[in-house]
Design goal:
Largest sheet: 12 strands, mixed
Order of helices and strands: HEEEHEHEEHEHHEEEHEHE
Distance between the termini: 43 Å
Shape: globular
Number of strands: 12
Oligomer: single chain
Length: 265
């Protein structure tokens, strides 16, 4: 793809995916607005801050906006994530977030690719591995336990969040597990963004002993086929450094980066 194509994809990403609020909202989710910010508070969990752009805010006005979010979540006693993109303005936004107590986490790359070529591929997991769509809470708990092994932290919030999404709109998300001998060895889900050409891919964590066998690729192509059946034409992923090369070989292109800045009271 040319640079012009990438610029166009970035603009489309900004306009159609950023600051988008799910409809219907999962139970217990509260959405508030503070100037250009969309603030989401999740039931029993933390919060999330997003925006399409900051409307030209700089200097004291921007610092005040950041401080209001920090102070609110400090009062609530909840963690909150500010999702910073590499092309966000002003250029010193990351410095301002750090000065307010937000800590940068691992950077990911936003990649976008067409559905059609991937949907034409057969998802072929390695021998002994089967892909299966799931909705039951017991399976969501199994996904969370698998991710806990991968990341060595608690992931109960993941099962809770997926369960609420499915309950709010079972047609908005497809959750897929990769199983071997009854064990979940990887999982991924695809969210369908109504009113846009985009489906977005999430998850993809794989147990260490099952990596480099093609499971991640099979999960990507499986979800691409599901998106294609529903008429979606583009896929978007926040890709880790591990998954980005696989996705680029499958036709995705990088359009920007994203870094979570997290404030913990």
């Amino acid at each position: 793809m040319t640079d012009l194509d990438i610029d166009a994809l970035r603009r489309t990403y900004d306009n159609q995916l950023r600051a988008r609020v799910p409809d219907p909202l999962p139970e217990g989710t509260v959405v508030e607005h503070d100037g250009p910010l969309v603030r989401m508070l999740y039931a029993g969990e933390g919060g999330f801050l997003t925006y399409r752009d900051l409307g030209g805010l700089t200097d004291a006005g921007l610092d005040d906006l950041i401080a209001r979010q920090r102070d609110l979540f400090k009062t609530l006693g909840r963690e909150v994530e500010w999702k910073l993109h590499g092309h966000d303005e002003p250029a010193d936004l990351g410095d301002r977030l750090r000065a307010a107590g937000f800590e940068p986490q691992e950077q990911e790359t936003v990649v976008i690719g067409p559905v059609a070529p991937l949907a034409a591929m057969l998802p072929v997991p390695p021998e002994g591995v089967e892909l299966r769509e799931v909705t039951a809470r017991a399976d969501l708990d199994r996904i969370a336990r698998m991710e806990e092994q991968v990341w060595n932290d608690s992931r109960g919030w993941l099962a809770d969040g997926l369960e609420r999404e499915i309950a709010a709109d079972p047609h908005s998300v497809t959750v897929v597990v990769a199983e071997a001998d009854g064990e979940v060895v990887s999982a991924g889900w695809v969210r369908y963004v109504t009113g846009t050409p985009f489906a977005t891919l999430w998850g993809g964590s794989t147990l260490e002993s099952w990596r480099r066998r093609g499971i991640y690729r099979a999960l990507v192509t499986y979800r691409a086929r599901q998106a294609g059946v529903l008429g979606y034409t583009m896929l978007q992923v926040d890709a880790s450094d591990d998954s980005r090369p696989i996705l680029e070989r499958l036709g995705f292109v990088a359009v920007t980066t994203t870094t979570p800045y997290v404030y913990t009271p």
